[in-house]
Amino acid sequence: SADTVDTMRPEMNPGASRLQGVRAADSMSEVSEGTTGTSVSTRGSTYSEDLQDLARHLGLSGPDQLAQDRFRVDRRKLEVMLRVKDGTVEPAEAFFQRVMDETVTHISWPSRLKIGAKSKKDPHIRISGKEDGVLAAKNKVMAVLDTRSNRVTMKLDVSYTDHSHIIGRGGLSIKSVMEETGCHIHFPDSNRNNPNEKSNQVSIAGEIEGVERARARVRELTPLIFSFELPVLSSMPDPTAPHILKVQETYGVQVLFRTRPKLHSTLVLIKGCEWELSKVKEATMVLVKQMCDSLAGQVTIH
After folding, report:
1. Mean pLDDT for the chain?
2. Residues 226-244 pLDDT 10s
3. Strand ordering across the sheet containing 223-230
4. Where is this region: Disordered (predicted)?
């Protein structure tokens, strides 16, 4: 789908009348790398008319004498400039107008970029003007919207058995981490389709500081498991017993039971998150006391 592009004009000089920005004069598609096609729509002042005005002001014979540069900018950063209205970030429209005024150039940019769209492709902008002005404008734009500045990808080794726990029900846990840190976190799709080969690799992409925060949050969400063995029992403990359910609810843990026939015992697993270490440990001690009674002091916790 095409995102509408703002076509704005620079203030030519202090003595000249200010040319007002015109909405939706150019429509630019978010296309794949290597594709340079754009489409032009006509509403109000057209993109070609804007370039003609700029060429005349610069003393050039026509728009074909203008230098142009078309390049991608960081989608997430541009979304922030379009979305945030609290004064902490310069609004996109004001930013591009200022750059044009300072460099006497014309900039086409996606003013109606779909915020939070499924597409992760970085959009294009196009700058026209004299060669030195275009270069100066590009430097100013990229200083704020560079797609490569401080962007890294970190690979983590996280056991594939823990991926679903970290992702959370409906993906809520990992979505929260991505929103908090501004990073994209990818779990290998092959794990869902290939029962024989599983990958432990988790990728985190974003700016350096955000990636480090995301890494810490993923580690915090990694399951922490304590276990202990019960003495020989005639039957498997009931996981729906009131005292088990109460421990799970009180401490935010999951209690699992596994029989170990060769050892004539039952293994109790208490599963929680690393960032709630004290709760997982306390839940384990409560269960040891409840289930082992007088033998509690002899139980080894792993």
Report:
1. 78
2. 888 886 655 678 888 899 9
3. 223-230, 265-273, 254-260
4. 1-45
Residue 96 and residue 100: Cα distance in Å, rounded?
6
Q: What confidence score (pLDDT) does residue 288 get?
A: 86
Which residue matches tokens 């196009």?
126
Region for 109 from its dihedrals, namely left if φ exceeds 0, alpha if ψ lies in -120 to 50, beta otherwise: beta
For residues 13-31, give the mean pLDDT.
Answer: 36
Q: Is the pTM of this model over 0.70?
A: no
Residue 31's pLDDT is 33
Winning range, highest mean pLDDT, from 60-69, 160-169, 217-226:
60-69
**Cβ neighbours, 10 Å, residue 152:** 14
CA dist 107 and 161 (Å) reads 49
Q: How far is C-alpha 289 from the geometric centre of its chain's CA atoms?
A: 44
Q: Is 181 exposed, middle or buried (0-12, 13-18, 19+ CB in 10 A)?
A: buried
Helix (DSSP H) and strand (DSSP E) numbers for the chain = 10, 11
Residue 170 scores a pLDDT above 50: yes
- What length is written for the chain? 302
Residue with tokens 């370039």: 51
Q: Which domains does the chain have, with CATH numbers?
A: 46-145 (3.30.1370.10), 151-221 (3.30.1370.10), 223-297 (3.30.1370)
In this predicted structure, the answer to whether residue 28 has a pLDDT above a threshold of 70 is no
Q: Output 280-285 pairs: Cβ under 8 A, ≥24 positions apart.
A: 280/224, 280/226, 280/251, 280/253, 281/226, 282/251, 283/247, 283/248, 283/250, 283/251, 283/253, 283/255, 284/226, 284/228
